[in-house]
Structure formats: C-alpha cells, structure tokens
Amino acid sequence: MHKTLLTGLIAVLLLTSFSCRKIFDRPEDKLEGKWWLQRAERNSFVNWNTITTGYENGSYTFSRNGDATYTDAQGSLTGRWDMYTVRDGYYDDNGDWQNRDKTVFKVNLHNFADNRVIDWFFEDCDFKGGNRFNAEYRTPSYRYRYRFIRQ
Fold first, then answer.
1. Which end of the chain has fewer surrounding CB within 10 Å, N or C?
2. Prediction pTM value
3. Could you tell me which residues come within 8 angstroms of residue 70 by beta carbon, excluding any fewer than 6 positions away?
4. Domain residues of the chain, as ranges?
C-alpha cells in the first residue's frame, strides 16, 4: 500500500510539472515570433503623449537564437536582440530596501547602406499575456514606453 501511494504521488508530481511548464517560461521565451510596434509614448511626469519613432509601420521578427529583423516598405534592418532579468531595488516609504526583478530588453538592428539604425535599450519589460508587451526606459527628463503587439 505504501509503495503504491508513493508511486502515485511521484506520477502526480511529474504530470503537474510538465503541465505547468508554460507558467515558468523565461520572458525571453515569449518573444520569439513576429511583432508590431503599436505605439510609442513619452511621459513628462504628468501625461503620456504619443510620439513617432519612424519604426511603427513595419514588422519585427525575433528568433530564438537572438537574430532579429525589422522589415517595412523602405527595406530591412538586421541584427540582434537580447533579454535578461536583473535584480534591482528601491527604498520604500519606511526606508527599507525592497528587491525587484526587472526584465531588460536590447534591440540592435541596422542597414548601413540605407543609413538606418535601431539601437534600443529598454530598462524594463512587462508581458501582458503572450500577445502583447510594454518596454520602458527613462532619461533624466522623460519616461518612454513602447507597446508591442504580436502579429
């Protein structure tokens, strides 16, 4: 009886671990595929205002091996992307240090013949399910947010 119970418990644990695999995927695993830049915005401490990057009308393709392309009516840019988690933190209102993980997203694409370059370094990304994510970075004066949608 004890051996049967132990075998059953092991079987349940194995089945559960495989069926929950998607929950524990790394953020960069969600990025593979084709994306479109739906909107870019800038915040100056009060309002979010839509801005134009010049790269809203094309399609971004991110491959699992780190290769990336951007294609629009003017041509293609090729290069690399990278995404990884960093531990960051801040002091709360009580003066206590609070740890926080952030997902960094870097995109470097170029077409030197056409003098076109994308060199983005986003300090934090937030996936909204599997078909949408926001990527943000800050400057001393502004905060920028780019919203990508899966095609």
1. N
2. 0.77
3. 55, 58, 59, 60, 61, 76, 77, 109, 118
4. 31-150
